[in-house]
Design a protein that fits this description.
Blueprint (H helix, E strand, L loop, with lengths): L1 H26 L6 H13 L3 H14 L4 H13 L3 H14 L4 H13 L3 H14 L4 H13 L3 H14 L4 H14 L2 H17 L3 H18 L3 H7 L6
Helix pairs in contact: 2-3, 2-4, 3-4, 4-5, 4-6, 5-6, 6-7, 7-8, 8-9, 9-10, 10-11, 10-12, 11-12
């Protein structure tokens, strides 16, 4: 009986000791390794504890003032927590340290885009495209920013750069329909409608087919075409 009681007390002691150590770890001094702090901040960010995450990252850059990943993570946290002006500030700090950092350029570009500063966003994405050449996602972002401030020639140019890499990029073909519509380049608009519809059928994508069909009706209306006339114009060669 006494042995059983001793065993019970020992188990309780071990359990309490473990809890005490866990609390001490959580509430104790932060690591002096910026990389460890970065991972800690990401975990806080994951659960939505943004202010705590920022505190940890501030501790990281106090240890290493040129630790760019901490600034990038801070910029992302400010972006997610709708503090985009502060996001711009920390991304600029990161760029001052490393102008060739791709993540920084993309992060700052996305932030400017959300602030509807599309002129500034496209500058960052163009810089990113110089760092990582022939990346279709970056080229797509550039085209989209040009669309937002209606630089149609540049928008068309960069969408076509994407197609040079990914000829069957459905969203690019759909977007180009709108670009050519706005330019009143009906011949190329029709071409993109037919390509989009074909890709939709090949990929069994009813949404793409539906969008292409709606665009087709719009074009017929704008050009005052009959269905038969449209069919004649939609046959290759388009150029």
């Amino acid at each position: 009986m006494i042995t059983d009681i001793k065993t019970l007390f020992l188990c309780v002691f071990i359990l309490l000791s473990g809890c005490s150590n866990e609390v001490a770890t959580q509430g104790g001094a932060l690591s002096d390794d910026p990389k460890v702090l970065l991972e800690n901040a990401k975990e806080k960010q994951r659960i939505g504890a943004y202010d705590e995450a920022i505190e940890i990252l501030n501790a990281a850059v106090k240890i290493d003032a040129e630790f760019v990943p901490a600034y990038n993570q801070m910029g992302l946290i400010y972006f997610e927590s709708d503090r985009k002006e502060e996001s711009v500030v920390v991304y600029k700090k990161a760029l001052a340290i490393d102008p060739e950092n791709l993540q920084t350029r993309l992060g700052l570009g996305e932030t400017y885009s959300m602030l509807t500063r599309n002129d500034l966003a496209v500058v960052q994405f163009l810089k990113a495209a110089e760092i990582k050449k022939n990346d279709p996602e970056i080229l797509f972002k550039i085209a989209l920013e040009y669309w937002y401030h209606q630089n149609l020639e540049k928008c068309k140019e960069y969408y076509n750069k994407v197609l040079e890499i990914e000829p069957d990029h459905v969203q690019v073909h759909l977007n180009l329909i709108s670009v050519y519509e706005r330019m009143k380049d009906w011949r190329h608009a029709i071409k993109e409608i037919e390509i989009s519809r074909r890709l939709g059928e090949e990929k069994n994508d009813p949404t793409t087919i539906s969008i292409a069909e709606r665009k087709k009706k719009f074009i017929i209306g704008r050009m005052n075409l009959t269905e038969e006339e449209y069919l004649k114009k939609s046959q290759p060669p388009f150029d």
